[in-house]
Amino acid sequence: MVRRHLSEPEVARIVTLVEEGYTYRAVGDRMGRHRVTTRPDDRAIIRHVRREPFVHSNIVAQNFPNRRQQQPERRQRVRNISSRRVRNRLGETGLRARHPNRVPILLTRHRRARSAYANEHRQWTLRQWGNVLFTDESRFSLHGNDRRPLVWRRPGERFRQNFVRPVAAYNGRSVMVWGGVSQTWKIPLVIIRENLTARRYIN
């Protein structure tokens, strides 16, 4: 348990609260550390990450004093805040730092085509889907840095356009693994060491 030194005025206030009938828990709540940020401060932090969901909490903390330029007396009292405090304020509203989903770069016509395909087949039965072979590929990087950034989002926002990471064609030296499954069988994995062109995909 962490203990801290109490000043004489604080001790006197605690004694007064106890004599007035407050429980120890209530006294502790009243004597706890004051919240450093105000509600407007908290809203400013939230607006920052909603406008820039991929921003690092350190950047938000560093830029925080600049948001109080119109109130110099407030800026003197709150010189800075820590990145941990930023994360705590965001967490209070359900915002968590998550790895963004990687999605292909799609143009408007691509989205329309996918939506049309989904609507066309949404009434299919399990037997019909059982005749379909689902294929996909995955890349394993041999060199380079594949670290994914973090994005601030709330539950249910995983696939929203502002919170995903569009990826272009695979760059750098890597190995592509391709495979497929259906309802009753699967095909062996195929290792593709070169670029997967349309002709090579058909073959």
TrEMBL record:
This chain's protein is named Transposase
Superkingdom of the organism of origin: Eukaryota
One of the entry's Gene Ontology molecular-function terms is: nucleic acid binding
Species of origin reads Ignelater luminosus
User: Which InterPro entries has this protein been placed in?
Assistant: RNaseH_sf, Transposase_5
